[in-house]
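Field notebook, page 280. I keep forgetting to write these up properly, so this time I am using the form the group agreed on. The chain and the ligand, zinc ion, are recorded exactly as supplied. Prediction of the bound pose follows.
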Amino acid sequence: MMAVANAMTPTRARRKVWPCVVAALLLSLGAGLMIVRKEAGGLRNVFSRAYWAERMSGDDLFSHKSHVFKRGNRDHREICLTIDDGPHPASCAKILDILAQHDIRVTFFLVGTRIKDHPELVRRMLEEGHEVGNHTQDHLRLDSLPANQVHNEIVNCETNFHRATGQRMYLFRPPGMRFNDEVIREALAQGYVTVSWDVGAKDFTAAHAKPEEIVIRVLKQLDNGVIVLLHDTPETAEALPEILDGIENQGYRILTATEMMERLPNPVRVPTNAFRVNTR
Ligand SMILES: [Zn+2]
């Protein structure tokens, strides 16, 4: 009888141990998947061969074919602030004052008709070390326009900028990030790098534009290398001091788009118009 009892004990023990081993394996698999999912920016990317091919080549940060800058270096605690659609007389000067108080340089994407109406604000941006990029002449959705109009939308904005500052622009952002192959071809032909974004403040719609909500929305999405999209509006101007304090408290440095591209694992060097202005 003893021999039978002894023979059954290890079997019982194995029966008890296996579920624990399986549970531990499943738990670590789940935890691992969560980490990879965060790293890949979503579950769909985790299982996408194309995404991991892009990660291996660095094209997830900067596309060498289309010259689209998508995000900065994941190894650096740095972010880029971009401010679109200005210059607006109701908020631009206040935004520039706040940036100067915090000693922060950002990248503005400006609309040609507004550059024409407020050239003094554009000159001030460059004088204070900010970069200015092309956000088209009339802020139309370029992917629905014929090729000649896409060409003119980019050229006319550039012309107004040159009249205001004596300089040219090197960075481009299509309104609403709506582009197709034709738009990218045109931007490349005119020597532009297209700058995307990955953290949106949603500060351009009345429903989302409460300053305290803008602050929370931006601060909770910060991560190494992200490009933040803000707009030149009075609400964003009101939110900006808290956004800058929050970014600083989380230990991030704020760089311009060209500075961030220089710090990619495969650095990309693009000329800047910051500090270059012909005052008249
Ligand atoms: Zn815009």
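OBSERVATIONS:
- The chain has two domains: 2-47, 58-262.
- The mean pLDDT is 91.
FOLLOW-UP: compare against the apo run.
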